[in-house]
Write a sequence for this structure.
């Protein structure tokens, strides 16, 4: 297992760490520290992608598991924020449906075409915007809800772009 894949595994392990910290009332400023875990997860995501591309360490496993780790972390964070009444339910519903469609679509493409769906520009921008929106929301910046809705919009644009590229435009 190479370094980028190890960083992806670390990100999977950060999910239960986030949950533990977020919901632990014995940790002073637990939501702040959970945010730190989320930021570390984001840093590992950036780092694993950079290392994989720079040193040609891209693997099929990494192409599949890296986005899965990202999706699970994001959904965990958003659901936690919703449970605490910090973000509205509609955010969770839209993101969950989008991610469900992405997973089903990726499974279909892999099973039928042996095609691994790769991250695209819109997906990366949507991910970054969710990180910014979550950070802004947790630290209670003005307009953080607006940032969340922008991130949701960008994630839907990414879904449409993935669908167009892999289904409508590329029917091979």
């Amino acid at each position: 297992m190479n370094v980028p894949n190890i960083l992806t595994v670390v990100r999977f392990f950060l999910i239960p760490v986030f949950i533990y910290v977020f919901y632990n009332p014995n940790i002073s400023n637990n939501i702040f520290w959970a945010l730190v875990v989320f930021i570390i997860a984001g840093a590992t995501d950036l780092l694993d992608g950079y290392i994989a591309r720079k040193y040609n360490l891209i693997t099929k496993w990494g192409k599949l598991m890296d986005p899965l780790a990202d999706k699970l972390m994001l959904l965990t964070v958003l659901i936690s924020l919703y449970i605490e009444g910090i973000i509205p339910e509609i955010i969770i519903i839209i993101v969950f449906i989008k991610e469900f469609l992405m997973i089903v679509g990726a499974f279909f493409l892999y099973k039928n075409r042996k095609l691994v769906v790769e991250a695209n520009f819109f997906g990366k921008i949507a991910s970054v915007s969710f990180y910014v929106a979550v950070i802004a929301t947790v630290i209670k910046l003005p307009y953080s809800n607006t940032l969340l809705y922008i991130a949701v919009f960008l994630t839907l644009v990414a879904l449409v772009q993935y669908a167009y590229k892999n289904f409508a435009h590329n029917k091979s």
Observations:
- The chain has one domain: 3-168.
